[in-house]
């Protein structure tokens, strides 16, 4: 069996590219004390309002446990807090006023990363 074709694995290439993009966003957001996932949580809550943790995890494409760890760190910083939920068994999160300030102040850094990735993708499309 010749396994040489696995050198060009699309799955591996996609994962590598995803890590490169994540590093770019993390680099731009670092000066704001945020990681890309944390920014995404804050932005989603700013757009959606109070949201059950499971629903937010689905929206962001995150594992619930990963989101829980992120949410706990954001809560420690005072950027999110628990919100009242219809179902007491479900944790619901909401953005605090400080959280809104944080996501708004970090937005220009996020936008720079977004624009860089857009340019890279446009370059790939024209090749």
From TrEMBL:
Top-rank lineage group of the source organism: Archaea
Position of the signal peptide: none
GO terms (BP aspect): regulation of DNA-templated transcription
Residue ranges constituting the HTH marR-type domain according to the UniProt record: 1-127
Database matches in SUPFAM superfamilies: Winged helix' DNA-binding domain (SSF46785)
Database matches in PROSITE patterns: HTH_MARR_2
SMART domains per the UniProt record, alphabetical: HTH_MARR
Residue ranges of the TM segments: none
InterPro entries: HTH_MarR-typ, MarR/SlyA-like, WH-like_DNA-bd_sf, WH_DNA-bd_sf
Protein name, entry field: MarR family winged helix-turn-helix transcriptional regulator
Species per Swiss-Prot/TrEMBL record: Natrinema soli
């Amino acid at each position: 069996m010749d396994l040489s074709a696995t050198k060009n694995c699309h799955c591996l290439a996609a994962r590598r590219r995803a890590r490169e993009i994540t590093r770019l966003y993390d680099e731009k957001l670092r000066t704001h004390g945020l990681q890309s996932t944390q920014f995404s949580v804050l932005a989603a809550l700013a757009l959606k309002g109070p949201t059950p943790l499971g629903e937010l995890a689905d929206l962001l494409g995150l594992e619930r446990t990963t989101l829980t760890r992120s949410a706990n760190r954001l809560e420690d910083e005072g950027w999110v807090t628990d919100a009242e939920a219809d179902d007491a068994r479900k944790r619901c999160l909401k953005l605090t006023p400080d959280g809104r300030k944080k996501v708004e102040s970090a937005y220009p850094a996020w936008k720079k990363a977004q624009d860089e990735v857009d340019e890279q993708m446009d370059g790939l499309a024209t090749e």
